[in-house]
């Protein structure tokens, strides 16, 4: 029959010239000339960031003012509670002190939540376009950065209004924030990949964020934390960042070296281990989305 | 020179009834029992020479789209090896990167970036894309959700066809837009073929595909039933599926 002839002809052709058929049971492999996706990584990343940003603000009447409104309201409520309802703290410039905590915390929760759900939210993209998967969570984290810049602007405005001015330790601020972004990217690699397989990961992240509100020292000084619990704060990059912000902006001195080393170490560790886990888990994204 | 080499490629999926739960994973892990599997592709061996084009035909669920996803590097074969030698563009779902709240123009840039064009190249061919899609200039800066389905599809196709790959993977997306636009797409793909590029398309064996491809692969339940010249394969396929009189 016609059909059988064609099959045997094909088998001769392919088995003869194909250069070896792998034994049954070898794990599958994909080879290509260079990477599968040969696009412009930076262009793709910036396009995704711009997309997230435009979508978020296009249909909001108040637009980017929401970025300012949320921290101002939180600052107002916390100031009311801790200076009027329960007025037993002796922290000077309490609103500024709070804002130094609220801004890093807000960025952390927003960016990490967005990073965690990024792969599942962009399932259509991940299943249909062979873009490097890493750029999806990174874009989700970075698209929160403009939000962050606006809030940092608010923080600076409040610090000038409280009578502080720029000091030479402010040069540390970009470094500190870069480490924070690296840390969140690392966490997002980890949780966005796990979230594909176990979809309640995002709720775990939300719960951790709630706990973090109380555990990073937004409305209290880390000096009141008993010594045995200090390590909990020292190894937490969000708490470390808040402390460093207060050192620089309010107290006017450089953060301690130990703090900087710990922040850098934890951020790089989170990024590298998150990246490794992501590499391992991304292979089966297609099958699980 | 081969542009595609598949040898002994199989793809199995786990059947977990859609349950992505921790306890199911824990149960599997503790009992050491793997979940039931389903073979979407079984031992496919195939080569495609540069400049040749192939159509994959078969019924729903035969493994056609799985084969394309393996070629596009979106999923990994369970066994066997896939080798693709050249720049590849996959037209699997038109407009998968499109967002309804972005304008047509913004979607074009985003999709071009995701499909692998550089910023410079995107700016160069932007007018060409809009022109090919036939979207009226006054609609280009309107959000995509105000477009008709046909307009959206035309725009998506225009971006994808302008990526200019060595191998174009197409998953039943040639039936886009109205008759005039289809004719335009068809002409464009023919030009693409004449410039020595390869096409790998999935289809229900339409006449259009017969004209575009030299060879065909007939898949049935993940197995390759037949491969050869397209006219022979299509004839045999229709012969098998014809309702006995």
What does the model show?
The complex is a heterodimer of chains A (289) and B (245). Chain A has 289 residues and is an all-alpha fold. Chain A is built from 13 helices and 1 strand, in the order H-E-H-H-H-H-H-H-H-H-H-H-H-H. In chain A, helix 2 crosses helix 6 (135-142) and helix 4 (94-121) packs antiparallel against helix 11 (237-251). Chain B has 2 domains: 1-87 and 165-245, Rossmann fold (3-Layer(aba) Sandwich), CATH 3.40.50; 94-164. In chain B, strands 5-6-7-3-8-9 form a 6-stranded mixed beta sheet, sandwiched between helices. Chain B has a 3-stranded antiparallel beta sheet with strand order 2-1-4, covered by helices on one side. In chain B, strand 6 (167-171), helix 7 and strand 7 (198-203) form a beta-alpha-beta unit. The longest helix of chain B is centred in the C-terminal third of the chain and has 16 residues, at 179-194. Chains A and B meet through helix 1, strand 1, helix 2, helix 5 and helix 13 of A and strand 1, strand 2, strand 4, helix 3 and strand 9 of B.
Write the layout of secondary structure elements.
The complex is a heterodimer of chains A (about 290) and B (about 240).
Chain A: H1 2-17, E1 29-32, H2 41-58, H3 65-85, H4 94-121, H5 123-128, H6 135-142, H7 145-161, H8 172-197, H9 201-215, H10 230-234, H11 237-251, H12 257-281, H13 285-288
Helix pairs in contact in A: 2-6, 3-4, 4-6, 4-7, 4-8, 4-9, 4-11, 6-8, 8-11, 8-12, 11-12
Chain B: E1 2-14, H1 22-31, E2 37-49, E3 54-57, H2 64-71, E4 79-84, E5 88-91, H3 104-115, H4 119-133, H5 137-140, H6 149-161, E6 167-171, H7 179-194, E7 198-203, H8 207-212, E8 215-220, E9 223-229, H9 230-241
Parallel strand pairs in B: 3-7, 3-8, 5-6, 6-7
Antiparallel strand pairs in B: 1-2, 1-4, 8-9
Helix pairs in contact in B: 3-4, 3-6, 4-6
The major β-sheet of chain B equals: 6 strands, mixed
Oligomeric state: heterodimer
Instruction: Give, in spatial order, the strands making up the sheet with the most strands of chain B.
Output: 5-6-7-3-8-9
Content of β-strand of chain B: 25-35%
The gyration radius over C-alpha positions of chain B equals 20 Å
Number of helices in the DSSP assignment of chain A: 13
Largest interface: A-B, 57 and 61 residues
User: How many beta-strand elements of chain A?
Assistant: 1
Structural class of chain B: alpha/beta
Number of strands of chain B: 9
Helix-strand sequence of chain A = HEHHHHHHHHHHHH
**N- to C-terminal distance of chain A:** 42 Å
Radius of gyration of chain A: 25 Å
């Amino acid at each position: 029959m016609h059909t059988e002839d064609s099959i045997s002809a094909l088998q001769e052709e392919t088995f003869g010239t194909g250069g070896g058929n792998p034994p049954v049971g070898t794990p599958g492999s994909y080879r290509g000339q260079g990477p599968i996706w040969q696009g412009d990584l930076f262009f793709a990343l910036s396009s995704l960031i711009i997309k997230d940003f435009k979508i978020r603000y296009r249909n909001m009447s108040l637009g980017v003012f929401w970025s300012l409104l949320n921290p101002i309201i939180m600052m107002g409520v916390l100031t009311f509670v801790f200076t009027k309802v329960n007025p037993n703290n002796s922290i000077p410039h309490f609103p500024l002190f709070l804002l130094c905590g609220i801004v890093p915390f807000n960025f952390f929760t927003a960016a990490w939540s967005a990073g965690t759900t990024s792969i599942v939210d962009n399932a259509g993209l991940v299943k249909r376009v062979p873009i490097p998967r890493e750029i999806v969570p990174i874009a989700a984290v970075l698209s929160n950065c403009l939000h962050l810049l606006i809030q940092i602007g608010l923080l600076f405005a409040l610090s000038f209004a409280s009578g502080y001015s720029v000091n030479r330790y402010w040069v540390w601020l970009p470094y500190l924030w870069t480490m924070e972004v690296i840390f969140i990217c690392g966490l997002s690699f980890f949780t966005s990949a796990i979230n594909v397989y176990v979809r309640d990961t995002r709720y775990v992240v939300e719960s951790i964020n709630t706990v973090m509100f109380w555990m990073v020292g937004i409305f209290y000084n880390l000096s009141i934390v008993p010594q045995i619990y200090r390590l909990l704060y020292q190894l937490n990059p969000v708490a470390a960042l808040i402390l460093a912000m207060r050192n620089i902006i309010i107290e006017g001195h450089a953060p301690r070296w130990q703090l900087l080393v710990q922040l850098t170490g934890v951020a790089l560790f989170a990024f590298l281990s998150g990246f490794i886990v992501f590499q391992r888990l991304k292979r089966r994204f297609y099958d699980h989305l | 020179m081969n542009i595609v080499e598949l040898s002994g490629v199989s793809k199995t999926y786990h059947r977990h009834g859609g349950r992505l739960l921790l306890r199911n994973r824990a149960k599997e892990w503790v009992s050491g029992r793997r979940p039931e599997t389903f073979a979407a592709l079984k031992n496919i061996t195939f080569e495609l020479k540069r400049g040749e084009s192939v159509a994959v035909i078969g019924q729903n669920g035969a493994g056609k789209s799985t084969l394309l996803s393996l070629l596009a590097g979106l999923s990994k074969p369970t066994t066997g090896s896939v080798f693709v030698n050249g720049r590849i563009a996959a037209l699997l779902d038109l407009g998968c990167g499109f967002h309804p709240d972005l304008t047509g123009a913004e979607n074009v840039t985003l999709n071009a970036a995701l499909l692998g064009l550089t910023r410079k190249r995107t700016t160069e061919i932007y007018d060409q894309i809009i022109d090919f899609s036939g979207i009226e200039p006054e609609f280009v800066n309107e959000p995509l959700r105000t477009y008709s389905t046909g307009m959206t599809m035309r725009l998506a196709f225009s971006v994808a066809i302008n990526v200019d790959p060595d191998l174009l993977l197409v998953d039943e997306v040639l039936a886009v837009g109205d008759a005039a636009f289809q004719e335009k797409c068809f002409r464009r793909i023919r030009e693409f073929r004449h410039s020595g590029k390869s096409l790998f398309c999935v289809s229900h064996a339409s006449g259009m595909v017969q004209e575009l491809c030299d060879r065909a692969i007939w898949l049935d339940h993940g197995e390759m039933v037949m491969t050869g010249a397209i006219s022979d394969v299509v004839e045999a396929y229709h012969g098998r599926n014809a309702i006995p009189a």
